[in-house]
Amino acid sequence: MKNLQGILYNCVRQNELFFQMIQNDAVEGYIFWERGEQQNLLLDSKLSQQLELKTLTDLDKLKASKGEFLHSIIEKVENQLGDEFSENDIFNTSVFQPVNNTDIRFSTCQSKESNALYILAAIQRTTYFNRNRSITDISNVLEVAVWQYNVFSGEVLINEMWASLIGYSKKELYPVTVKTFEDLTHPQDFEEFKTVLQKYIDGESKSYTMEIRMRHKEGYWKWVLAKGKIVTRNEDGEVEWMMGSHIDITKRKIRENQMEILAQVPISTNNAVIISDANGKITFVNNAFEEITGYLLEEVLGKKPGDFLQGPLTDQKDIASFRKHLSLGRSFTQEILNYSKTGDPYLLSCQVDPIFNDKGEISKFISLQRIITEEKKNKEFLATFKNTLDQTEDCIFIFDQEDLKFTYVNQGAINMMGYTEEEMLLLHPYDLKPEFPKVEFQALIKPLAEDRIPSIRFQTIHRAKNGRDIPVEVFLQFIKNEKVSPHFVAVVKDITDQLAIEKELSRLSLVAKKTTNLVVITDNIGKIEYVNPAFEQKTGYKLEEVIGSKPGKFLHGKETKSEHIKATRAGLKTLKPFTQEILNYSRSGEKYWVSITFNPVFNESGELTNFIAIESDITEQKHKETLLRESEERLQFVLEGSELGYWDINLETGKTTMNDRYFELLGYTAENFEQSIHFYQSLVHPDDIGKLTRLMDTSFIPGGQDDFSMELRVKHKLGHYVWILDRGAVVKRDEKGTPLRISGTHTEFSRRKKLEIELQEERDFFSRVIGSNTLSLVIVAKSGKITFANRGAEKVLGIIKSEIEDKVYDDPDWRHITLEDEPFDIEKLPFPIVMHTKKSVQDIRHGIEWADGTKKYLSISGGPFNLEDGEIQDVIFSVADITERVKTQKQLDLAKDQMQSILKDMSDVVWSVDLPDYKMKFITPSIEKLTGFPASYYLENYQGNRWEERVYDADRGLVTQAYEDLDKNGSYEIEYRIRTKDNLLKWVLNKGTIIYKNGLPSRLDGYITDITNRKKQENSLAKYLGIVEDQNERLKNFTYIVSHNLRSHSANIQGLVYLINKKNPKIAENEYVKMLSKASNKLDETLHHLNNVVSVVSSTEEMEKINLSDAIATFLDAFENVISEAQLYFLNEISNNVVIEAVPAFLESIITNLLTNAIKYCDSQKDFSFVRISNRSLNGIVIMEVQDNGLGIDMEKYGEKLFGMYKTFHTHTDSRGLGLFLTKNQVESIGGKITVESKLGVGTTFKVFLKDGSI
Amino acid sequence: MAVFKNVCIVDDDDLFMILTIDIMKDENFAENIYDFDDGKKALSYLKSTDEHNFPEVLFLDINMPMMDGWEFMDVLKEDNLTGKMNIYITSSSIDPIDLKKAEENPFIRGFLTKPLDPEKLKTVLKN
């Protein structure tokens, strides 16, 4: 390391300018270094002390702020030096850093030994040390991005905020040039930037303001509002330095770029909107709601609108109807009287729409409310009085008892307050009276309103629009009659003049002798009448010395600025109190700065008598201020463009400084804003004052925190509160660390800002709603073209957004149909109606039918939402898919019709019984058919239970059982017998189910069916089935025995007989063997017969349709000979077309058997024998009769056995007795019946009942 | 000279067997008559018999214990023995179902109702 100290010593000897600079110019210190060797700096003790550094310093190792400070000087000097330099010159330069600057003089010295160039830079003046903290730091704290740009050199300086706005740190961007800016800026915007800047520099435009896109470190674009102003110009008047700010406006830009539609959704109308969850609890209200009701969103969140909006006069019926509608979960409109927070009733029309989630459950209700109360109800009344009152010079204020809003002010009042009439009508008396905040004012007028006193007279202050306080005397009366709503009338007189003297005198008395301030009282021409001890002490002049002389003569000195003197004189001439700062001299010649407040004093007649001057010593403050002013101005300037209010408080002097924006935020101007902490405190909302005092307790103490940020409500000049984000930083502390000065910014976020935020939230919400598919929205432009459709609409209409947006409302693609599928009148579609009536429509229902025949049914509500000059531009519709509902309804209607006709005709009895008293409430008329008693019999009032009386005694136990089932299961099903009116027994099936309502049994519904026939059938069938099965089984076994077992034995016997006959013919001659042979053959024959019979019974042969006359003809062919031999008349009376159903073989056998029998047993004794066969039909049965006049049978003797096996009733040789047995079996096996009538010697008639096959 | 060289009778009815064999001998119906009182024995005989000595006619009863006539037919068919001889059902059954069943079986040449006599044996000769 080089011995810089030694080199500097040599340089001073070599270059005498160095000595001069060190002696005279290095006010704040100097830096000495070798060119290009910045890691080795020599600082003088003054500079190193101020920077709290060692005298020898390495620049690279320094921390940000200090390093930057030194670096900026060194860099500037080295740059300026360039390649050419003259050793014996002193150069001047200045370094501008954001919000601070430094004047430097520098010179060089070339080492004779090494040829190295050494530089000495003397810091003449810098604002860097004037703050404990760098203004750059503060600008960072205040979150203002600041830049400085040297138009000549292209040099660009930025602060940390500037870099962080686009995601960088300042270090990352280093070194910053215009190129850096260009690289970071959107090419399009950069081109524009150059044009805009040039115009400004050329003086063609008054400011440089533009919105540019800058690339964030992460690649996306940030929107930045860039503002700037020219700061310095060179000797030729050319622009040198520019300075400005960057503000992040990305959010606003994004918002701006959002769909215009969102902004226009009806939500942002003047109508109040409430959104509640499925339980009716509020989740959102819009601004209009807040304005109408006076409730803020945060107040009503989670509450049900009905819990606080309705009041004593709200009609209970309306409330009930409202609830009923809500519970139905459908859209509806209802008028209802609501109350605002202040108790004002207002009538509104409320449209409520449920929003359904994907599951079809209600997730939200949206309620749109339109006030329909007649506005300004007192307007007529006031008009009458207006003229009269306007004539008077006194100020008349009339305000309403309920909301205390002015309903009328006369011209005098308007003149006094400086507000327009419209403004006045928005205000309340307490807005004008700073001494009477709302609560106090209400207390004041309470005795009047309660008629305890007729009137009040009091003095107070009215604060005019321009902030001027006007002392007034108020005469207040309360008017109450039947014609108008109760109101107050105030007659107000300006008493400024009256109070002026009193006020001044009181000021005089305030000037205590002991005050540390200097007090001078002069007469009306400025000659001293009195000075206080503090004055004597400070100036060194005694009262006696100065009395009679004018203060300016001996107090002003060489450096007292003439402009200050002029201002003082001018001020005095106004005869109004004013304050002026001026530099005075004491007797000893010591300079001191004072701030003088001059107060003119007038006598009763209004003549000027005295001036009282109160002077406070601000020397120290002034000194520092001088140093600070420049940088302050710069900071202020930067902030000016940034929409931030700037404030600065000097805690030592109490002096406050604010920029115009600061005043503007609160509705003031620099002229009418009282610049004191106390005044500010008086503006802070009582609820927020704690924040302020807490801050003072924590920050404004030694070692307290430096930076703060808080949100306060501050009273606007117009009386309302605005939300202010107050950010600040302690910029100066004394040795003990006690803050001396605090600077900060105000950002407004209330009202407009808040509205903006809320609007944003609202938009977000609605864009979610719109984006979701729960709400289906379609926007139709006035041309009829659909310009917008959301996801919900896609879902409902079943086509994609772009397809929807391609259509007009009455597009031929979707044929409009009514819910009954008839063509829908186009003029009655929602869109033409809205366009025509300019009103909203609700729940217009129609269907659309697509080309492929698919149908959708829709419920459409909507209305105009974008009006220009009273003409509708767009109509927004919400479209609900009611296809399912309509279809269901149609089905339901159909089902109802069907049900009705069924009820009318059915034989089943439907009934309903009220619980718990078991009283019959309803029973269908068919009960009469069942029981013989009409329905009215069961419905009339009766002690007992008429139905139960019908129950058959033996079955009562079943009914008791049914009641037990009912208790257990809630239903029963039993079959039992009842007695009819005619004492017949009928079987019924009775079913019943309990219907619950709200968890309690409310009804028992059921039905009764007559099952008598079924029961009968069941019983006979059961019997029949059992027998048949039994018989079949037995027959099978029998068949087997016959055809196998018996037959095998019989076969063997036959075989043996054969063998005997063959082998031993002698034995065969034996009589017994002959008999054995005969018996053996008989046995075999019998077995064959038997087998025939049983195979008939167990036969599985198919039934066929057979023409009966054909069957008879076949028989006649086969037995022709037999008939002719028998010598009898065969009478065939069978009709030609009689068809029966039978097994053909069986029918043939039956006919053969019956006819051959009849022929066989004809009576040979009779002259005329006949066999007659005939038929007749009866109810699906064909009866075939075979009649003869033969031998006949003794029915008494043989009747039962006639059809038995092996019964013969005659001694005829041929009779074997199997015939009728077989016939009967065959008849029965084909589902028929055979009967016989016979008389011995008269004849026999067989009747065969057969199935009619023609059916 | 007998009509057939080898005839086989399968029947569990002893009396029927005696009567039948007697008649066959009288009528000189077969040189050798093999009689079996159940199907299994008959099968094992048939399986062990060479082509030369295979029976030309087999009389089969339906109702037999152990293995009835229909089962016997199934096994014969499986062993491919059905085509080598003429099979007749001999049964006392007059059940039309049995008759029908016999008619439907292509390997059964005829249904002979017991008892057998020279007339019935002659129908076998005719076939």
Shape of chain A: elongated
Within CATH, the superfamily of the largest domain in chain A carries the name: Histidine kinase-like ATPase, C-terminal domain
**How many discrete structural domains of chain B?**
1
Termini separation of chain A (Å)? 136 Å
What is the general shape of chain B?
A: globular
User: Span between N and C termini of chain B?
Assistant: 19 Å
Structural class of chain A: alpha+beta
Q: Overview of this structure, please?
A:
Chain A: Residues 208-261, 330-384, 454-507, 576-630, 708-761, 842-894, 972-1023 form the PAC domain. The complex is a heterodimer of chains A (1255) and B (127). Chain A is of the alpha+beta class. In chain A, 38% of the residues lie in helices and 30% in strands. Chain A folds into ten domains: 1-130, Beta-Lactamase (2-Layer Sandwich); 143-257, PAS domain (Beta-Lactamase); 265-371, 2-Layer Sandwich (Beta-Lactamase); 379-494, PAS domain (Beta-Lactamase); 500-604, Beta-Lactamase (2-Layer Sandwich); 662-769, PAS domain (Beta-Lactamase); 776-888, PAS domain (Beta-Lactamase, 2-Layer Sandwich); 906-1006, Beta-Lactamase (2-Layer Sandwich); and more. In chain A, strands 43, 44, 45, 46, 47, 48 and 49 form a seven-stranded mixed beta sheet that branches. Chain A is elongated, with a radius of gyration of 61 Å. Chain B has 127 residues and is of the alpha/beta class. In chain B, strands 2-1-3-4-5 form a five-stranded parallel beta sheet, with helices on both faces. In chain B, 37% of the residues are buried. Chain B has a single domain (4-54, 69-106), classed as 3-Layer(aba) Sandwich (Rossmann fold), CATH 3.40.50. The longest helix of chain B is centred in the N-terminal third of the chain and has 13 residues, at 14-26. The interface between A and B is medium-sized, with 20 and 20 residues.
Which structural traits does this protein have?
heterodimer; A: 1255 residues; alpha+beta; Beta-Lactamase; 10 domains; 46 helices; 30% strand; B: 127 residues; alpha/beta; Rossmann fold; five-stranded parallel sheet; 5 helices; globular
